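Predict structure. Chain length: 189.
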Amino acid sequence: MRTYDRLRPTAIAIMEQLDAYGVELDDQGVHVMMSPVNRHELAISRLLRQLLPQLGPDMLAHAGTPEIDDPGTGRLRRPDLVVVPEAALERPGQSYLRPEDVELVAEVVSAPNPENDYEHKAADYPAMGIPTYLIIDPRKSTVTVLSEPGSTPEGTRYRTRRDYVFGDQVEAGGYIIDSDAFLPYEDGS
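Prediction complete.
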């Protein structure tokens, strides 16, 4: 039995019983997410504010929830922000997104766990078929845009990577983001 199949009920129970900030599931197991720091939340709020006027009439940008559940790859991820068609949230039942609904995911790197965003999620999101992955890194004052998921000798990966520094105009999935809106972490957090 796959890790996903065995541990998904545990991940769901943790979310429901502990009222955790977030829970994710991958080959490494169940990960309980800690509440983020203020500048992490500020970056997501400012990103959301910039995306909203650029969205088409049937599109939504949503921060914090819902999770993306992909039984095919055995992944349950909770991005900081997603861009999806409104119809994806009109479905009845539990608020899990299907990977094929997601147009863009964004993550703000946390100081204690950067490898989660740069390694694990940079492998999971293209495997799920998500076209654009935006990484905001207040530790280094950088923004990275990964796009064009496709097969490589190492598996499914993003084939295009563009790096920016805070202050640059960033193009991600057809959206323009002014990265001057983001603040670096103080003292590495």
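Summary: The domain at 37-181 is CATH 3.90.1570.10 (tt1808, chain A).
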